[in-house]
C-alpha cells in the first residue's frame, strides 16, 4: 500500500500544528464556537449530542496493521474502548475531548494517518472498492488513481469552501462494490477501444433527501487529464452550485437543474481552458504511486482445497469469503454485525486482534467496507480455518455478509444531533429477530439499510430493504422502502406506505422476507423477486 | 473604506474606490471593481488592462465562490491587485494567497502574529494554483 514520502509526511504534520493552533485559539476564547465550527469540521471533529466525535480518514479504505493497531489504541486511550467504522470507509470515535484532539492527530500522523477533510464542505475522503487489488473481476487496481486524487484534493485551495460536502468514489470493476453512482463524482476506470486505460466520469449522484443516480458525464478521460478534468467538474460546481439552501446545495441538484447536457457543456469549456494551465501532474507521478499497490508476494502452486467438515466454518466460508484473483487465496470478510450488536462497532481489543490477524494472514493489509465491515484481502485458503477460529473466539466470526443481519445503520438519535429517530435499537431488534446464521442463510443476500433521518447516512434509499426513521409529532416512526440497490444496477427504493413504530417495523421486515421466501424462483435474491413481482404482494402482506 | 491589513505587492497602494460589476458595465472608465459572490468574474476579462484593483467580497467566509473568481482572473493574466474584503478570517489566508489574492482588508482586523503564521503555514503544496508555487509532484519529478 501507499507509503508517505517526506512531502506527504510534512503536509500531515503541518496540519497537526495548524489544528493544535486552532484548538488553542478556541480554548482561550479567541475563537467562538461559531467561528471554530467550520475549522474543526475540516478536521473531522463534530460536536454531537453528548460529546465531540472525531472521524479519522482511511483513504480508499486501505489500512496496514500498524495503523489498525493504533486505531485500537486510540479507542482505549481517548474514547470508551471502541470505535465505529463508517459507510465512508472511515472510523469515528464518539466520546472525544476537544483538548485531546491535537494529540490524537499527532499520534495518527506517526502512522501516516489523519482526519483531514473527513467532514465539512470540502472534498471528502476518496472511497473505493474494498476488494481492490484482490478481486478476480477488476480491470486494474483503482487505488493509485484514488491516491492521486487524494493528494490533489487535500488542502485544494479553491475547493475548501464548497457549497456542500463532496464525495468521490473510484472503482475499476463491473461489479460496483462502492455505490459509485451514488457519489457526487463517481469514477470508473475503463479501457477504451485502443486498449488504453482511462477514467469514466459520473456526476451528480447522492442520497440525502433527494436521492439521485448519477449520469455518465464523460465516457473516457485520458490518464494525463484526470486531475484537470476533476478540477473542471469542481470549479463549475463551486461557482454555480446553490448556496441559498443547504438541502439543495449538493452537485446533484446543480446537475439536475442545469440538466446533464448543460453541466457537461460548462465542464468541457472549463476543461479546455484548464488544459492550458499546466495543472496536471506528469504521468511519472502515477508511475511513482503504482508500485506501492503492486501485488504482495503471493505463493504459487497452492491447493484450492478446503476442509469444510466443520459446519459452522463451512457457513462462514460460504457467506463471508469471496473469490481472489490468485489461486489458493481468498478474500475474507469480517462481519462487524454480531447478532444484537451495534453495526460497525468494534472494541479496542477486536481492532487490535484484526490488525494482528492481518499481519499473520493477509500480508499486513486490511480494508474497511462501506457496509461497515472489515476485509482481510489476501488470505491463503489453507489459513482460513485458523483465521476463522481466532475471529470466532473474539466475537468476529459472524457468518452473515450481505444478509439481513449485515445491515448498515447510521448512529441515529443515540449520538447524532441531526437524527429524528434512533437507528441502532432497530438494527439490534432486527438482528435478533433473524438471529441464527441458518435463518439468514435461507434468506440469502438481502441488503438492509437504516437511516435515522432524511439525510440518509444509513443509505436507506439503496437498501433492498430500507428503513427511514422520522419524527412524527414527537414520536419515532419508521418508514419501509423496498427495491433499492447500490451496485452496477443501481436503483432507489420506494416507500411501501404508512410508517411503523419500533416493533412494527421489525414485524414488517419479517413479513417482507416471508413474501420473498414464498415467491422466490430458482436462484432469485430478495431484490430479484421484488423486481419481478413488484410492490403489491409485499404491501398486501405488510398492511393487509 | 476598510483598511488593507496585509499586502504582498511592491507597487503603490491603490486607493480607487471599487464599483460594482453592474456599475462597471455602464461606466467602463473605472479602475477598480468589486466582485460579489454571485458575479461572474469572466465578465471582467475584456477590461483587465484598465483595472488596477479587483476587490472580491466575502460577505461570509463560508461562501467560497471568491476563490474561483480570483483564480479565473489570474488565469486570464490579470496582474493587478486582487483584494479579499469582508469576512476574511485567519484560516483562509494561505488558501486565498494560493488562489491569487495579494491584498487583504478584513472587516475585523486579524491578529498579526496569527496571520503571519497562517501565511507561512505550508512549506509545500499538492496542487498547481495561481501563486506560481511548484507543487509537490513537480518537486518529486524535477531532474
Automatic annotation (TrEMBL), chain A:
Q: Name it.
A: Nitrite/sulfite reductase
Q: Which residues belong to any copy of the Nitrite/sulphite reductase 4Fe-4S domain?
A: 119-273, 406-542
The residue ranges of the Nitrite/Sulfite reductase ferredoxin-like domain are 52-110, 342-394
Q: Which organism is it from?
A: Novosphingobium beihaiensis
Alphabetic keyword roster:
4Fe-4S, Heme, Iron, Iron-sulfur, Metal-binding, Oxidoreductase
UniProt keyword Oxidoreductase, yes or no: yes
InterPro entries (UniProt xref): NIR_SIR_4Fe-4S, NiRdtase/SiRdtase_haem-b_fer, Nit/Sulf_reduc_fer-like_dom_sf, NO2/SO3_Rdtase_4Fe4S_dom, NO2/SO3_Rdtase_4Fe4S_sf
Q: Write down the superkingdom of origin.
A: Bacteria
Automatic annotation (TrEMBL), chain B:
Q: Which domain of life is it from?
A: Bacteria
Q: What is this protein called?
A: DUF934 domain-containing protein
Q: Which organism is it from?
A: Novosphingobium beihaiensis
Amino acid at each position: 500500500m501507499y507509503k508517505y514520502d517526506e512531502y506527504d509526511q510534512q503536509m500531515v504534520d503541518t496540519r497537526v500544528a495548524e489544528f493544535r493552533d486552532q484548538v488553542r485559539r478556541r480554548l482561550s476564547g479567541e475563537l467562538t464556537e461559531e467561528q471554530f465550527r467550520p475549522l474543526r469540521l475540516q478536521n473531522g471533529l463534530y460536536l454531537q449530542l453528548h460529546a465531540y466525535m472525531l472521524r479519522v480518514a482511511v483513504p480508499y479504505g486501505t489500512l496496514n496493521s500498524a495503523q489498525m493497531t493504533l486505531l485500537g489504541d486510540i479507542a482505549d486511550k481517548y474514547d470508551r474502548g471502541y470505535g465505529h467504522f463508517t459507510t465512508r470507509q472511515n472510523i469515528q470515535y464518539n466520546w472525544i475531548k476537544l483538548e485531546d484532539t491535537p494529540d490524537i492527530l499527532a499520534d495518527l500522523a506517526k502512522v501516516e494517518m489523519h482526519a483531514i477533510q473527513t467532514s465539512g464542505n470540502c472534498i471528502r475522503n476518496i472511497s473505493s472498492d474494498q476488494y481492490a487489488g484482490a478481486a478476480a473481476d477488476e480491470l486494474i487496481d483503482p487505488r493509485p488513481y484514488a491516491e492521486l486524487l487524494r493528494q490533489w484534493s487535500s488542502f485544494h485551495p479553491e475547493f475548501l469552501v464548497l457549497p456542500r460536502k463532496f464525495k468521490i468514489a473510484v472503482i475499476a470493476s463491473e461489479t460496483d462494490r462502492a455505490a459509485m453512482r451514488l457519489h457526487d463524482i463517481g469514477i470508473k476506470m475503463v479501457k477504451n477501444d485502443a486498449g488504453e486505460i482511462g477514467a469514466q466520469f459520473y456526476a451528480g449522484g447522492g442520497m440525502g433527501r433527494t436521492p439521485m443516480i448519477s449520469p455518465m458525464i464523460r465516457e473516457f478521460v485520458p490518464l494525463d487529464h484526470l486531475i484537470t478534468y476533476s478540477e473542471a467538474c469542481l470549479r463549475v460546481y463551486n461557482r454555480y452550485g446553490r448556496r441559498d439552501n443547504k438541502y439543495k446545495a449538493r452537485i446533484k441538484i446543480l446537475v439536475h437543474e442545469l440538466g446533464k447536457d448543460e453541466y457537461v457543456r460548462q465542464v468541457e469549456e472549463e476543461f479546455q481552458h484548464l488544459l492550458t494551465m499546466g495543472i496536471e501532474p506528469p504521468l511519472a507521478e502515477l508511475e511513482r504511486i503504482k508500485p506501492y499497490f503492486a501485488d504482495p508476494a503471493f505463493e504459487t502452486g497452492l491447493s484450492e482445497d478446503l476442509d469444510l467438515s466443520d459446519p459452522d466454518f463451512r457457513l462462514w466460508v460460504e457467506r463471508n469469503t469471496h473469490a481472489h484473483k490468485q489461486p489458493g487465496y481468498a478474500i475474507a470478510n469480517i462481519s462487524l454485525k454480531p447478532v444484537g450488536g451495534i453495526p460497525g462497532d468494534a472494541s479496542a481489543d477486536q481492532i487490535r486482534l484484526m490488525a494482528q490477524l492481518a499481519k499473520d494472514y493477509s500480508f499486513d493489509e486490511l480494508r474497511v467496507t462501506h457496509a461497515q465491515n472489515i476485509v482481510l484481502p489476501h488470505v491463503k485458503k489453507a489459513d482460513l480455518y485458523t483465521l476463522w477460529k481466532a475471529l470466532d473466539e473474539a466475537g468476529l466470526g459472524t457468518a452473515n455478509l450481505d444478509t439481513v443481519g449485515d445491515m448498515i445503520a447510521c448512529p441515529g438519535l443515540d449520538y447524532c444531533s441531526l437524527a429524528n429517530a434512533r437507528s441502532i435499537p432497530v438494527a439490534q431488534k432486527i438482528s435478533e429477530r433473524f438471529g441464527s446464521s441458518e435463518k439468514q442463510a435461507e434468506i440469502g443476500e438481502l441488503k438492509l439499510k437504516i437511516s435515522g433521518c432524511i439525510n440518509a447516512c444509513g443509505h436507506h434509499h439503496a437498501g433492498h430493504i430500507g428503513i427511514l426513521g422520522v419524527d412524527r409529532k414527537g414520536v419515532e416512526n419508521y418508514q419501509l422502502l423496498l427495491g433499492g440497490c447500490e451496485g452496477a444496477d443501481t436503483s432507489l427504493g420506494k416507500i411501501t406506505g404508512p410508517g411503523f413504530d419500533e416493533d412494527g417495523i421489525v414485524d414488517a421486515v419479517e413479513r417482507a422476507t416471508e413474501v420473498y421466501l414464498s415467491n422466490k424462483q430458482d436462484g432469485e435474491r430478495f431484490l430479484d423477486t421484488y423486481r419481478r413481482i413488484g410492490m403489491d404482494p409485499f404491501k398486501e402482506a405488510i398492511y393487509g | 473604506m476598510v483598511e488593507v491589513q496585509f499586502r504582498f505587492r511592491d507597487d503603490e497602494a491603490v486607493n480607487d474606490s471599487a464599483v460594482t460589476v453592474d456599475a462597471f458595465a455602464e461606466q467602463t472608465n473605472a479602475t477598480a471593481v468589486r466582485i460579489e459572490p454571485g458575479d461572474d468574474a469572466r465578465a471582467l476579462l475584456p477590461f483587465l488592462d484598465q483595472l488596477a484593483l479587483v476587490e472580491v467580497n466575502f460577505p461570509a467566509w463560508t461562501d467560497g465562490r471568491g476563490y474561483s473568481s480570483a483564480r479565473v482572473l489570474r488565469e486570464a493574466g490579470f496582474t493587478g491587485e486582487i483584494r479579499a474584503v469582508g469576512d476574511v478570517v485567519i484560516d483562509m489566508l494561505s488558501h486565498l494567497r494560493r488562489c491569487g489574492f495579494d491584498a487583504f482588508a478584513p472587516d475585523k482586523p486579524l491578529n498579526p502574529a496569527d496571520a503571519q503564521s497562517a501565511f507561512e503555514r505550508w512549506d509545500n503544496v499538492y496542487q498547481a494554483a495561481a501563486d506560481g508555487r511548484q507543487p509537490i509532484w513537480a518537486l518529486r519529478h524535477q531532474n
